[in-house]
Description:
This protein has about 200 residues and is α+β, with helices and mostly antiparallel strands. Helices cover about 25% and strands about 35% of the residues. The protein has four helices and nine strands. A nine-stranded mixed β-sheet has the order 1-2-3-4-5-6-7-9-8, with helices on both faces. Strand 8 (about 165-175) and strand 9 form a beta hairpin. The longest helix has 15 residues, at about 120-135. The chain is globular, with a radius of gyration of 17 Å. The relative contact order is 0.14.
Amino acid sequence: MARWELRPAGSVGPGTRPTYDRVAVPGAETTAPLRIRPFEDGDDAICERVLRALPEWFGIESALVQYVADASAHATWIATGTAKEGPLDVGFITVRRHFPQSAEINCLAVRPEFHRTGVGRALTTVVEDRLARSGVSFLQVKTLGPTRIDEHYARTRRFYEAMGFLPLEEFAELWPGNPALQLVKRLAPVAPPTERRA
């Protein structure tokens, strides 16, 4: 599988909506760039296609429909690629801002053929950078808790732990019939860019 390096493709200052290019590392199986950009009108279709490719994680129809609606209602970043056949839907991440100092990953989904290629890490890194620049100190995410044995969600928990998230609490009744594990991460502060004076 290909791996990419994350490189800003434009300004990342406050108030900007940059895109990020992920350039294939030399020697990888593909040199097709992967672009991470803010949600645009019509991208809800991309989000739905990605979610429907992941029935092991998003098999509850009502929840899937809500995640698609949330993607257009909250800050969302889209990962797309290119192939000989045309554009590729790769993944997306949606974030909810609860308070000025805290936010939550509402949904992170990457098509299965792009798992373990660094796409999820790149999407999370972009979001963490943008949140830290806007003053967010704490980022949380909820996923299926470990008291429900599920190999797919065990991978999800390992991913978040590798990204620096720590398990805080498991809630038995937050999601009826499914234990919810809350993980949290403290974001390193990022100083806003200084303006040059003429």
